[in-house]
Each structure stands twice: as C-alpha cells, then as structure tokens.
Design brief:
It is a single chain. The protein is built from 12 helices and 38 strands. The chain has about 725 residues and is an alpha+beta fold. The two termini are about 35 Å apart.
C-alpha cells in the first residue's frame, strides 16, 4: 500500500495490492480525477485529459479556450464559475456572495487514519492505512478546504471526507457540505440503489444511467427506510460473480443526498453528502466544519465481492471493537407475544419457558414505564409502571438472571409524549417552530437533541438503568421522523443547523453511553429499518432489520441489506403465524431458515405454541448454537437472485464449514430441473454433507451444482451443512 506523489507529472497515486486511485493537479491549481479501479503497477498518464474548445464553456485562462473545468473530470466542484455540474459545496458570505475560487495549495501524507470530530467513521487499527490530505485555498475569503482520502492495505476500500475551514475574521455560511465527489469519463453504467418503505425495506433498484441527474435523498431527519444512503455504478453486464462495480456509502444517520449526473459529453459525476435542502452551518471565524465520511468500494468480481468488502470493513473497522467477533445471544423479545399486555408474573413465566428451550436473552419491549398501556402516552417518563412490575426493573432483571438468562430492555429515548410529566415540565425540549402547531406522529413529538440539556438528560436516564450492571441489552427505537425542525436553543440565523445538530447530539449520547457501558449490547431500531445506516453501526453493532417479520418478505429484505451489511448486523426473529404484519402463514421450519440467516431470535408467545412446535423450537436453537459462529462471522454469499416466486439461496462459509440455505417460495407447476452452484467453496477441497455423509469436491459443488429437489407446497425450504475434509 502506498500513496505516491509524482512531482514532475503532478499526480497522486493511491494503491494497494488490488486497487488504484489517481488524482491529478492541472495548471498547478485544479484537482482532477484520473483513475479509480484495478491496481496499476505504475502510471504515466496514458489516459491523458483532452483539452477541447467546447461551446458555452468557461475558461479560467482567457487565452486557452480549450481549457474548461466544465469539461474536465474533477475531485471537487467549483462554485459560481467554471463548472455547471452538481456541486459538492456552497458558501455564502455576509454580503450574500456565493462565489469562491479554491485552488491547490499543498498536501500531506499521514501513516494513519484520523478520526473525525463528533462523527463516526471507520477505524484504522489492526490494518495498515495511509491518508492523503489535499489542501485547497480561497485566498480572497481566507477559506480552506481539506480533501481527505484514506486507503487500506488489504481492502478494496477508500474513504473520503472534506473539512471546511474559515481562517477569516467574519462568519461565513456553509450551505452545502458534501463529503465526496468524483467524475467518471463514461456513463454506460447501471445505477443501483436500495429503496423501500416501512415493512418493505431494501429493495434493489437497477436501471441504466441516463442523461441528467439521478438522485436519492432523505429530508426526514434520518437516513430513512425510503432510501439507503448508498448508490452503486456497475457495468451493465455485472452479475453476482463478475463485472466491475463501484459502491458509495455515507456514514451518516440524518438527511443525505446521493446522486449521479450524466453530463452533456457523456461523463458521470457521483456526489454524496448531507442534504443541502435542510442544511446550513454558520462557520464562525477560526472554526471548521467536518463532513461525514463516505466509503468508496471497488469490485471487479461483481456484487458478491462488493458485499465482502463492505462486510469486512464494517465488521472489522466500524462496529464497536468489543462486538466485532463476539457471538450474539439467542433472544426472546416480548413485543408480538404481549404488546402492552403483561405483568411481572407473565414475564417471569415466559422467561422460564424460554430458558427451558435454550434461549439466552429475554428482552422486555414497550409498555414497562409510565402509564404506557398504549402508544399515546408516557414517552419521556422512564419510570417503572408499578402496576405491571411492582418490584421494579432491577428485581425483574435479577430474577431472570438467576434463571441463567440475560435481560434486555426497550427504550424510545428520542421521543416525548404530550401526555407525559416530562412534557409538562419541559415543553421547550421538543422540536418546534415558534408560531406553528407541533405536528404529532404516532401521537408523539421528537425531543430536540441539538440541545445539550436534552442530551444530558437522556445520558442520565441510561445511567439510571445501566449502572447496576443487570441490563446487558438495550433495544433503542425511533418511531417517527422529524417535523417542525426548529430549536429554541439556537439563534435565528442558525435554525437550518438543527437537523445536523440533532444527529451530532444523537452521536454524542451514543458515544457517551456505549463507552460508559461497553458490556451492554445495543440494538438499533427505527420501526425496523428507518435508520439503518453505517453511522448507527459505529455505536450499535446490530439493527432490527424490519418490523415486517414475515419469512418470505424478510428473505427479500435481508437479501437486499446483505449487499451492504453482514448477517450478524441484521436482527431477525421467528414470529407468530398468521403473520401480524401481512397475515401470511409459513411453516415454522421456513421461518427458522430465514431468521437464523440473520441475528437470530424469537418474537412470539411461547406459552401458546403446541408441544410439537416447542420441541421443534428447542431443536432449532440447538442447531443454531452448533453453527452460530459460522453464521455470524463466516463469509456470506448470495447464490441466486430473489425471483418472482420469492425463492432465494445463500451460503455461509468459513475455513472448516459451509451452510447452504434454500427457500423455495411459491410452488410452481412443471418445475424445471435446476442445479444450485455454490460458486465460493474451496475448489481443491472435499466437503462432506453431514446429513447424508456424501462427499463432494468443492469444484463440482461450485460448477456442476446440487440438484434442487422437487418441492410441493408454498414457502418451503431446506438447509445443507458441509464439513470441509481437506
């Protein structure tokens, strides 16, 4: 891994064993994008930039009509002159001017990966990294921009961010603070995103790029279930196993924009960052603003390799270190089995039965605090409901721990109910705009996390419950988006900062609490996948993937999220049938196959299950425990696309074992003969299928494939476990 600067030819070459990224300096002023892709052993500007006299071009050098930044591939945009494509930044000064002139000043190369102040980012420990910092200066306004690039030794990953600095004597307003931008010389790519809705997250959209701007975004205050802060550009023929794919992912949990523009001469600009529609920052004199970090991912072996890069990066360098390789417990969550209707006695009875079945963690969900008998009241009042739990949380946790189970608790800390003591005491603590009514969602309001006193209050709440050491798991929920985004704690010319300050406040709370209680496993939730992003993963190593727990819907949702996240990050539970979200009935075995392919648990009323189902659940738990390390920390591969019949297949592999999961979906007539190729096993090894004892070579499993048996009936499936013999 190296970052080299060729002084004679004026370019930077960032490379590791598999990937190169090359940045040029034109006219000693302008930063251009020259190459991103498979490793180049050396570079001599073979792909030289064309200088062409274009119509309607603007020329920074009057005498050179063939030199225009509007026609060159760049690493950052310009503002108010020279370049008319989508921008990565925007300043407004105190006279209302919106023109800047940033030119190259100098660079630094660091043998480390710097942390980002107040923001989550991927780490560099246990991995060789180098960081390039390119300094651009606007001398007229004494502004500085630092383009920051980090490359990893063993991953096809580059991270980028921008720091915006005001060295002047007066405040200036930052209206757009993008994290990264680059220009590709071609546009014959497919544009790929993950889109969805509540209970229908992570659908994969793939369509050819077309002239103009293709954009996804969120203005909801969170990353949202509608769009993941991610886009990819892929060769039109790219598959799971072949072809070039570029992935771009933003480590941020608030409003974002991710976009690609195909411009008039066929190049493509990619840009990611905070959504400027809901953002502005008053950059005082002698202060700086740090943008969130963007991850750039390169694969020349299709989408599965792209996924492997993301999975390894996030599991090794993003989630809290103590959870990187720590096995997750099998849990029973109380929600769908009880909703708000439970007592101390019924909870203890359920925990007792859970222990008998082999479950390891009992999680008490919503309804344990205030007067919380429905979802209209008590958010913000985090005191125990003594009518339901007369002996309190500590006693309940101790009782459950004495059974040999861990104990977990649900919170929705960012919300406040109008029907609450906290709202009566602090009505100014909710997000609001003076003179306008406060819009409720789910009959609740949102606390103003941009305020330090609100942050401190929530930290104190968690101290109250976690300091005893009896709670080992927290489910952190967030069930509505942000409206009336204003704060009484900020000046009138800083109100557009609230959305970002909310996220910074959230990160401060999370950093404080998770550092103070590193032994507590935090699960991120936002009505399922409403705030499922890498920013949250930096504090909470797993996310409740979707409120939709139907196995067939979940197979599609988990398939989509697997493009970016490893299965251990995807909370997945077996729930009741008919399913509470869509009413479908699926076999218990199929519900197990899909749920165990994520972070496994149960969310149903155990006492209402038949003896036969309880016996099957006990067997499921034993099976999962046997293969838990393989599923949670092995390599995960998708073996076939999710199709119209809702069938899918995937594979878990480590050095000693492989586990294949197949879900058939809808039954079909005149079923064709189909062989499922494993593709990713060791070609030279032999594998023993443990149920039959049959032995196969990795190469025949990969290329000839396993015969898929004829399956009658909807929504059935099977698993096959292989032990590697040599």
């Amino acid at each position: 891994m190296t970052i080299l600067f060729d002084e004679q030819q004026q370019f930077f070459h960032l490379s590791n064993s598999t990937m190169s990224y090359i940045i040029g300096i034109e006219k000693e002023k302008y930063i251009t994008h020259l190459y991103f892709g498979q490793r180049l052993e050396s570079y001599h500007k073979v792909n030289q930039l064309p200088y062409i006299d274009r119509g309607f071009a603007t020329n920074p050098i009057n005498e050179e009509r063939n030199f225009s930044l509007n026609a060159l591939p760049l690493e950052t945009s310009t503002q108010g002159s020279l370049d008319f494509r989508i921008s990565n930044y925007q300043f407004r000064n105190n006279t209302g001017g919106r023109v800047t002139n940033f030119i190259y000043d100098h660079y630094e190369i660091l043998d480390e990966k710097p942390t980002l102040s107040g923001l989550p980012s991927v780490r560099g420990e246990n991995e060789q990294t180098q960081t390039l910092e390119i300094y651009l200066v606007d001398h007229q306004q004494q502004l500085e921009m630092v383009l920051r690039y980090t490359i990893y030794e063993t991953l096809d990953i580059l991270t980028r961010s921008v720091e915006y600095r005001n060295h002047g004597t007066q405040a200036i307003y930052l209206e757009n603070a993008g994290s990264m931008m680059l220009d590709f010389p071609r546009s014959d790519y497919d544009f790929i995103t993950l889109y969805g809705a509540h209970t229908n997250e992570a659908n994969i959209a793939r369509q050819p790029l077309h002239p103009g701007i293709q954009k996804i975004e969120s203005v909801r205050g969170t990353s949202s279930p509608q769009h993941q802060p991610f886009l990819a550009l892929a060769d039109s023929q790219a598959t799971e196993d072949s072809g070039v794919v570029y992935g771009f992912h933003l480590i941020y949990s608030g409003n974002f924009v991710a976009q690609a523009e195909v411009e008039q001469y066929g190049s493509t600009r990619v840009q990611l960052g905070i959504n400027p529609e809901t953002f502005e920052w008053k950059l005082e004199a002698s202060t700086a603003f740090q943008s969130p970090e963007a991850v750039l991912n390169f694969s020349n072996r299709g989408f599965n390799q792209l996924s492997q890069n993301f999975h390894t990066l996030y599991q090794t360098h993003l989630v809290p270190t103590q959870w990187s390789q720590t096995e997750r417990p099998i849990l029973l969550n109380s929600w769908e089995g009880n909703y708000f209707d439970f007592t101390q006695e019924t909870i203890i009875q359920q925990a007792t039965l859970a222990k008998e079945l082999g479950i390891e963690l009992f999680v008490l969900d919503d309804g344990w605090f205030g007067e919380r008998n429905d979802d209209t009241t008590s958010l913000g009042d985090w005191s125990v409901d003594k009518n339901k739990l007369p002996d309190g949380i500590d006693h309940l946790a101790t009782t459950i721990q004495e059974m040999g189970l861990q104990f977990g608790l649900w919170f929705e800390p960012e919300m406040i109910s109008e029907k609450s003591d906290l709202y009566k005491k602090h009505p100014e603590w909710s997000l609001q705009v003076s003179g306008y009514p406060q819009t409720q969602g789910r009959q609740q309001l949102v606390l103003d996390l941009s305020r330090r006193d609100v942050q401190d209050y929530l930290i104190q709440v968690f101290d109250t419950y976690l300091s005893s050491g009896k709670i080992t798991y927290i489910k952190w929920d967030m069930n509505r988006h942000l409206t009336e985004v204003g704060s009484f704690g900020l000046a009138h010319d800083q109100q557009k900062e609230v959305s970002h300050r909310y996220v910074l406040g959230l990160y401060r709370i999370l950093a404080t609490v998770t550092t103070r209680y590193p032994q507590v496993l935090f699960e991120n939730c936002s009505s399922g996948g409403g705030r499922f992003d890498p920013g949250m993963m930096a504090y909470m190593p797993q996310t409740w993937t979707s409120d939709n727990s139907d196995a067939i819907c979940r197979s599609k949702i988990q398939y989509g999220y697997s493009l970016l996240y490893p299965p251990v990050m995807l909370g997945a539970h077996i729930s009741e049938v008919p399913n509470h979200q869509i009413g479908r009935e699926t076999p218990l075995e199929t519900r197990f196959l899909i749920a165990m392919s994520g972070n496994f648990g149960y969310e149903l009323s155990l006492e209402r299950q038949t003896k036969e189902d309880l016996a099957a659940i006990k067997e499921q738990i034993a099976f999962y425990k046997t293969h838990r390390k393989l599923i949670q920390f092995g390599s995960f591969y998708r073996l076939k696309p999710f199709d119209e019949q809702a069938s899918t297949a995937w594979l878990f592999v480590n050095d000693t074992d492989a586990l294949l999961i197949y879900s058939h979906g809808l039954a079909r007539p005149a079923q064709t003969v189909e062989y499922l190729k494993t593709t990713y096993l060791d070609e030279e090894a032999l594998y023993k299928e443990t149920q039959t004892g049959n032995i196969y070579s990795g190469s025949e499993l990969n290329h000839a494939g396993l015969l898929i048996p004829r399956i009658k009936g909807d929504f059935k499936g099977f698993s096959l476990h292989f032990t590697k013999l040599s």
